[in-house]
Amino acid sequence: MWPDRRLLDLFDIELPIVQAPMAGAVGLELIIAAADAGGLGSMPCAMLTPDKAREQIAIFKQRTSKPLNVNFFCHAPVAADAQAEARWRTRLATYYKEYGVDPNVPVPSANRSPFDEAMCGVIEEAKPKIVSFHFGLPEERLLKRVKTAGCIVLSSATTAKEARWLEAHGADVIIAQGNEAGGHRGMFLTDKVDQQPGTFALVPQVVDAVRVPVIAAGGISDGRGIAAAFALGASAAQVGSAYLKCPESLIGKPYRDGLANSDSDSTTVTNVLTGKPARGIVNRVMAEVGPLSSDAPAFPHAATALAPLRAAAEKKGSAEFTPMWSGQAAALAPELPAAELTKKLAADALKRLKQMTA
User: Fold this and answer.
1) What is the pLDDT of residue 113?
2) Separation of alpha carbons 352 and 358, rounded Å
3) Which of 62, 80, 115, 233 would you call most buried, defined as having the most Cβ atoms within 10 angstroms of its Cβ?
4) What's the pTM value of the predicted model, to 2 decimals?
5) Could you write out the DSSP letters of every residue in 4-51?
6) Which domains does the chain carry?
7) Cα(48)–Cα(56) distance, rounded to whole angstroms?
8) CB of 162 within 8 A of CB of 175?
């Protein structure tokens, strides 16, 4: 039924839909529902401890026999810079005053950790079928251990050059992340956000650049987008923002309201929320301080000084300082439970593909 079965057979899934791993926004209920419906469930681990990741993987395996994608960041960690932090707090001073927040209040450091020895040990123990990475690949010795454990390795590319690099360094599948995608840009060989190609331009160039299967990501929220991904040569589509609208997602009401009211021009790429470029629905701090600011400390430290402001605003039901990661096509997604959404996306895509070949 599907024009390309390479990833269906490789992953042992029924539908060529990858539920995007979105740290802090998706939990086990959504992941299991997407997997049981026939797609590939993806567990974000960038904000989990090794023990918590181990526990979550075990629960998934207890509740379903479906394959699992376990996702990690693999950025080079940067130590917090006291001077940069002080400049950032000064830049945010008017907001501290407005919300009555002490700018010197101690807050925990941002907890987005790269893949390391401890997490590699979790993978060797749990042996999930698939492991995916964002911001490149981990160092060679860790990647070798992941592959020795029998895991299929995925990673994101934002350019054809990055795709070729990933294939040469051991990736089994490339996720072609177009500029329309919500969340953090997966770029690792470039910092030129303004030169990032969109999905429609990126996917066929990545398909031509590598021999491994390609997953299209970015601005895909309905069956038409999935059909277009196949027409461009992809073997599957990764869907993120559409799953955020599911009742199983972990996002709060302000975030849900933002998605419900979003339009094609509601998002932008910003670095003020975490220190790395990421696409999200424009909120107050993005509009007034960014969207891109040289004052923002390096990833993930920009989030530290924002944490008390975010907490204060959220108590009032506001997302003025809350990341609302979203792609450019969230408005196209229906609001359905995750299992129903997965099946509808697949059915609508197949219908469109049949029309294209009739």
Assistant:
1) 86
2) 10
3) 115
4) 0.97
5) --HHHHHHT-SSSEEEPP-TTT--HHHHHHHHHTTSBEEEE-TTS-HH
6) 6-77+113-259+330-357 (3.20.20.70), 79-110+267-325 (no CATH)
7) 9
8) no
